[in-house]
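Subject: sequence -> structure tokens, single chain

Hey, anyone have a minute? Need the predicted structure for the following. Not urgent.
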Amino acid sequence: MLKVLRVIAFILSVTFISISAGAQIDYVIEKRDGRDMYVHKVEKGHTLYSISRLYKVDEETIIKNNPDAAKGLSIDQTLYIPVPDGVDLDSWENPIGQEGAFLLHKVKRSETLFGISQNYKVDVNQILEDNPEANGGLKKDQILKILINDVETVELIRPEPEAQDSLKTHLVKQGETLYSISRLYDVELDQLQAINNNFPEGLKAGSEIFIPGVNELFTAQTKPKLYEIPVLKEVDPAIGYDIALMLPLYLNKSDTAELSRKESMLQNISLQFYRGVCASVDSLRLLGLNARVKVFDVRDTDYSVTKALEDDFVKSCHIIIGPLQYTPLTKVADFAAQRGIHVVCPVPHKNKILLNHPSLSKVVGSDVSQVDFLAKYVAREHFTDNVILLNSMFTSDTRSTDMFRQAYNLSALSYPNGAEKELVEVKASGKSVGSLRGILNPEAKNVIVMTSDNESLLQDMLTQIALTSDEKYDIVVYGMESWLDLQLIDANYKERFNIALPSITFVDYDDPEVQGFVRNFYAEYNAEPGDFGLMGYDIMRYYGFGLLQFGLSFPNNFSQITSTGLLHMDFNYFKTGLESGYENRHFFMLEHRDYKLQLKGQYEARANN
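Reply:
Had a minute. Here:
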């Protein structure tokens, strides 16, 4: 399943960006106190870091001239930035402008992707993701979008009255620790740290700190804000719900021979998914759901999207599932947001699709969420064990390695003496894995984690571990879901080290319910359901239960939906922001045991969000 998801994710992520060379910054300069100052109006996505890069000054200079910026930036805030001495205003250098969260870089002769990535401190893969046309090489005068939000620590907020008195506070007593305070108020340690800016001066007796939660007195004196998604219309369940299914079926091609390989693959996926949805709707009718499903052939073309959005059924429907491709999905999400229609994104896309789309839910969790889940799972299940993180030292793996380290250390703080729990980190390139001999503990379980999916490195790593250790060591290895695609991992290594990994989906074909579904599907369509048939069934069943239990307010009650009969995936939605949509952060933890892939410990492992 994962291999198919990754292939389709690559296909669906290829969107072409057209930015004219005229995107150059249109700067305004004023004289203030006898000095030339740029006048910058803050927009959504701007950060201190990006603005400093744009005007070629350091962040401290911006804050010095705009003291309020130290508290965070606000949309429409005006900043005054000194024009550096010697700047030629007629020959602006890179970056040439800013577009939301992106800086715009105009490629010079002989520039390389690696050099540009190092200049902006952004991973090469991130640049390629945001500029897919760069996969074919860079061209002089080409405009690249450079995402720089990840390195910024100052939050961009909408201007609103300060409400610090709305938080609980605690006066620190002599001898109290972060752990004891977190237990006193029953809050997570990472929440406590985040709300107090990680205690830059430490925890001091006599100081007052903030506690996650609401000050009851403040609540009684003020009207609380509600950030639920408004339900624009109510529906009588007896009348029923209208669901638009948007899939690239390529119905305009009379002969399958006319289809390209990509189109043929998408058509097959769409057909599986559609049949799975139909089977699910049939089963939900027996439970009392009255739903009408209409299919629209929506491909990665403006014409197909426009045609679908002009249909009266779509304009008044209650849920849209799809489209699969990124460009039409954004257009549908914009359209639906204005009408209170919920949109379901059923395939992998980066979380940026959720920005400014509060009525959109993304079924497949991101790689970031996967690493976070893995770290929390290892911290929880192996807190007393010897945990070793292998660092591949590859640039492409830096982000996932750093994220695991940070999430693990924060999670460890939730346990007694967690601050003393050390994550051992070992360089995992070449023969350096051999240094594990001095780190492995013969009297404890040794948990080895690696977030890289480099196949040759992984195979070498497992071989080195096997040669370094002997049967006296108890070793378990954790990796990434992408390892399921790898062909070179020795089956004996999988079994010996019980290689475990998180996965979006898991199908137990020994389950009578799964077997019954496959038989009925084959009897109806004379074909196997395939991975996307199972996905279509589960997605429709989950959202159908949401409609049965909560009507159109189901997005505000995602955590309360109780669905049964799901075949290969589950749902644990997390709202990514007040103005953003929902991401499914459910993962199964699987392990290789008895020469097959099974649920680890015979139970479903959930992220502790």
